[in-house]
Amino acid sequence: MSTDNLTQILTTTVEELSSPESLKGLFHQHREGDPLPSSKALGEIIELSRSILFPGYFGKSTVNTQTLKYHIGVNVERLRKLLTDQIMAGLCFNRSECDLSEDLTECNRSASVIATQLISRLPKIRSVLATDVEAAYNGDPAAESFGEIISCYPVIKALTNYRIAHELIELGVPLIPRIITEMAHSETGIDIHPAATIGHHFTIDHGTGVVIGATCIIGDNVKLYQGVTLGAKSFPLDEDGNPIKGIPRHPILEDDVIVYANATILGRITIGRGSVIGANVWVTEDMQPNSKKYIKA
User: Fold this and answer.
1) pLDDT of residue 33
2) Confidence class of residue 5 from pLDDT cuts 50, 70 and 90?
């Protein structure tokens, strides 16, 4: 094949890849001056957040009671700057219909306010994560200390990302929360949508393969095992045959529920308080409080 023919093949390919028809829904029109979300910066945000929430376990290992306030102060200041930039990137990314001449100053101010609001919620996030650590420790006879839970158990890393991302959702930040939970998904194998609502003393034993959908509501003292799916049974369609967005479609797990490995719970059903669902069970109907469902041998 001649050089001219090779060049023509490449030219034709570029034209096909650039055609509007092939790009429908796959192209983000970047506006000059707008920031773009950065996976590297978001990774640093998570590392900083973990070092603030669990000092001595993440970040600088030399931190002690004399230097704790200094280290947290430095990390908080760095975190605020990174959060402001990434929240602004999320806000800009989601406003494709904006006037091209719109001033970004107001957007930056909003991002700075949201970043500060999130940081102000870190004490509450730490308090809830402490209950998650306790639940993991109490639920696993192999665990020898809280430190082992924090350092080794994937559920704590996944829940740290989730609880931060959930607060960002509550503060109205688009895109960035989903990126943060998908980072934890890649790291731990635990897939928690940031819009899900999860109570205190929550734990997932082992964790790999767990899926928790966007409209799930999980109460307090709930325990899941690996491979559990809390998903949607069906998707109501609009007049054009497209799934209707934003409707409740995932399960509600009340307090003190236990779900064993590889169970699948689908649809907007309620699993009553204190219920136990055995391994490999398929559940699509409500369960009364303190009931059990399992495969009989």
Assistant:
1) 52
2) confident
**What number is the average pLDDT over the span 211-216?**
98
d(CA 185, CA 65): 33
- Kindly report the three-state secondary structure assignment for every residue of the chain: CCHHHHHHHHHHHHHHHHCHHHHCCCCCCCCCCCCCCCHHHHHHHHHHHHHHHCECCECCCCCCCCCHHHHHHHHHHHHHHHHHHHHHHHHHHCCCCCCCCCCCHHHHHHHHHHHHHHHHCHHHHHHHHHHHHHHHHHCCCCCCCHHHHHHHCHHHHHHHHHHHHHHHHHCCCCCHHHHHHHHHHHHHCCEECCCCEECCCCEEECCCCCEECCCCEECCCCEEECCCEEECCCCCECCCCCECCCCCCCCEECCCCEECCCCEEECCCEECCCCEECCCCEECCCECCCCEECCCC
List, for residues 117-165, the tens digit of each pLDDT value: 999 999 999 999 999 999 999 999 999 999 999 999 999 999 999 999 9
User: Does pLDDT of 241 surpass 90?
Assistant: no
Mean pLDDT of the chain: 91
What is the bridge-based pairing of β-strands 211-212 and 223-225? unpaired
